[in-house]
Amino acid sequence: MKARFLGSLGLSLAALWAAAAPFQPNYDEDKVPEYRLPDPLVLPNGKPIEDAKTWEKKGRPAILKLFTEHVYGRAPGRPAGMKFQTWSYDRRALDGKATRKEIIIYLTGKTNGPSLELLIYLPNQALKPVPVFLGLNYFGNQSVHPDPAIKMTERWLRQSKDDTVVNNRATEKSRGCQASRWAIEQALERGFAVATFYYGDIEPDHEEGWKTGVRAALSKQGPNTVYGPSDWGALAAWAWGLSRAMDYIEKDRDLDARRVVVFGHSRHGKAALWAGAVDTRFAIVISNDSGCGGAALSRRRFGETVERINTVFPHWFCGLFKQYNNNEDALPVDQHQLIALIAPRPVYVASADKDLWADPKGEFLAAKHAEPVYRLYGLPGLGVEQMPATNTPVGGHIGYHLRAGAHDITAYDWEQYLRFAARHFGMP
Ligand code: GTR
After folding, report:
1. Among the four residues 172, 195, 234, 311, which has the most C-beta atoms within 10 Å?
2. pTM of the full predicted structure?
3. Hey, what's the torsion of the CAs at 329, 344, 248, 143, to 10 degrees?
4. Domain spanning 83-425 has what CATH number?
5. From the CB of 355, is ligand 1 less than 6 Å away?
């Protein structure tokens, strides 16, 4: 009895210790375990996929289903009765270079229901309809540019260390606080519109956030909803929001819905990849430093791991994904297949050399191992065998670069994305 008691006490002390010990990411390439990636060209029944038709009819749906059920969770479709309201319209924004539009998307058609606020800058000097860069922002639309006329978000925001967010609300100081991440003028000069909305419009990014976001609003049980293991997590909800913005873009005659680039940095890069995988209306998908659960291979366990991400962000993925904590080899998919789901559309994956947490090599390898699917379409993938040196963009239909520097999205990154999109859209 005594021994048994001590034994169980010993076990629980060990468990307590494990929970309290800080997570030690592996940054040593020699310690990456051996792993075998699922072959994107083999169907779940073991049959090989030899042509694009079989991929589209069988391979793609099977992989999409696995990602839905095991990783991101199932989202509903387009809600009935969605309404768009033009909140503002100014043809002389940014010194006359742009037209600024702000659109409120009432997601269920009710003005007291969930909504998202889409900010759009359109180049005045371009033939309409124009291609669009669409991405989520972290601190409200007013954070992407110092333009004083942008409608300030009134929603919950993560507390910041400076005075841009006070009591979880944006302050005037937040205007343009993320402007370095948004090359709006450069995009406009190249003939692109830029569209963005605050991701917290869809769901505030914390464990209880779903209760005041669309996941509760669209559920009959509201904030009492009990989620099944494959119901949508926050990333799927943010991706779903990107599709709702696309629904609006399809209705706006100034914008070309057939040339929409969905992009995102970090967790927004994960959401952009999933949005692009699910919704084939997105013509190009760009992942900037998206890391674990984004472009990086989970099986490498380099930097952030499945267990770590599921612990710190338990709301991001579907419940079933937790089953792969410390159990990556059991995953029925890996992230190269997420990139493959975007084929034959162009996709761009970018890393930063100081951003080891996101595993740059794992991001490169995922892009590389998506190539076989692009090859079914006769399309070049990356066009290189080895990871390129820093600041050396590579790629055909799969683009890649390793920027020198930290976890961020910079003017350098934008320059590559604008060039990549212009090339694929046949723009100068
Ligand atoms: C980190 C998280 C990453 C990445 C990043 C971000 O804390 O571990 O997966 O998403 O946040 O979004 O900035």
Report:
1. 234
2. 0.95
3. 60
4. 3.40.50.1820
5. no
